[in-house]
Amino acid sequence: MFKKKINKLFYNSPIWIQNVCISCYGYYRKNRRFGGVFSEYVAVFLQNEKKTAEAWKDYQTQELRKLLVHAFETVPYYKELYTKHGFTIEDFKNFELSQLPKLPYLEKEALRKFGENKLLSLHKKPGGFYSSSGSTGTPTKIYFSKYFHQIWSAAYEVRIRKWAGIDKTMNRGMIGGRKIGEDSSAKAPFYRFNAAEKQTYFSAYHISLDTVDDYVAGFVKNKVEYLVGYAMSIYYLADFIVQKKIEVPKQKAVITSSEKLTSEMRTVIEKAFQCKVYDSYSGVEACGLISENSFGELIFSQDTGIMEVVDAHGNEVLTGENGEVIATGLLNFDQPLIRYRIGDCVTMAKEQKSKSNVQMPIVKEISGRTEDTITTLDGRKMVRFHSIFTDIEHLKQGQIIQNSLSEFELNCVVHPSFSKESENEMRTRLKKQIGEQVQIKFNYLDTIPLMANGKFRAVISKIEQ
Question: Which domain holds residue 139?
Answer without folding.
Answer: 1-370
